[in-house]
């Protein structure tokens, strides 16, 4: 879980209903370890679990049976590569029961709150987004309003699935601020980071069992590791290019934060010549157009004229940049130069094998990235990292938040399932008096 501290961990159960039923089997360390193997894999058989854990077949099957009875796993009809591995009796195959619960990912941005709800294997089941009224200046936003909007967005997404907080195994939150391993953010200039943080971690922990907060770019990196362009990578940087620039850094397989969560903060770029500061791509595009052109200087129907006449949003302009268009070419080349310098800087500082450009701009920036690849400096003495664009689009931060919640919740999902079982399946006196069968949850 990349060193997530106790402040971000799940609330543990405190007596009551859970402890009123015998749960010794499901709380065994062996059962938790078997779940851990399944949690990080796809369809598997007892042999797979035994190879990873060193357990005997009897212990493995007993744990798998307990997890099935608890509702967290199910038997699967194997297909494709997961066929029978030899002659004789066909193997039994198992997998996480995706619909056993849900994970929630929240991006608490400075202009909107975006939510995804996924099942336990990461399939998106619901999306919600709500704008923040009067978002500028962002450092003056009301933190009470931010908390209310965030909690309402999550509740609305769950309500659409006829679910509530008790169905949520884990909830992740991403904010545009440094976040340390305690879930805390520093003040920032004019208090911006604390406003973005808005004590959301503490607020959500009142209603949700497992909650984790991270910087938004760090969550973009987790999304790429779980769902995107970094599945096989141990050393990579995700450059989140949204309203500003931020980096999510994974080295030796671990998300890197630093003492106060500032490892991926790129504000220092404002002091580095040639990289255009830490402004977001859309901001750079708007600034360039407004400083170089008037609407009446552009042909009717040109995207930039429509933008200057308030008939086209600036977020749509990046896709129209063309190196062969005499109007847009200067900006195209300026952005290619900027990214080339950024990539050289990130490669020098972090030594990644891959740099992934993520966020809302990723789908429109392919030609610019190709030009930037050709312009990177070759005199650093280090092999150049691979440069790729993310395919996760606007969902990259919420998906990363859900993935972060899943990492955190693995250690507590058995307790969560026991609570749900005990609340919904009260045993009768006859059932309570009947000894449990081997390999099952009583």
UniProtKB/TrEMBL annotation:
This is ROK family protein. It comes from the Bacteria. InterPro entries: ATPase_NBD (IPR043129), ROK (IPR000600), WH-like_DNA-bd_sf (IPR036388). SUPFAM superfamilies: Actin-like ATPase domain. Pfam families: ROK. PANTHER family: BIFUNCTIONAL UDP-N-ACETYLGLUCOSAMINE 2-EPIMERASE_N-ACETYLMANNOSAMINE KINASE, ROK (REPRESSOR, ORF, KINASE) FAMILY. Belongs to the ROK (NagC/XylR) family.
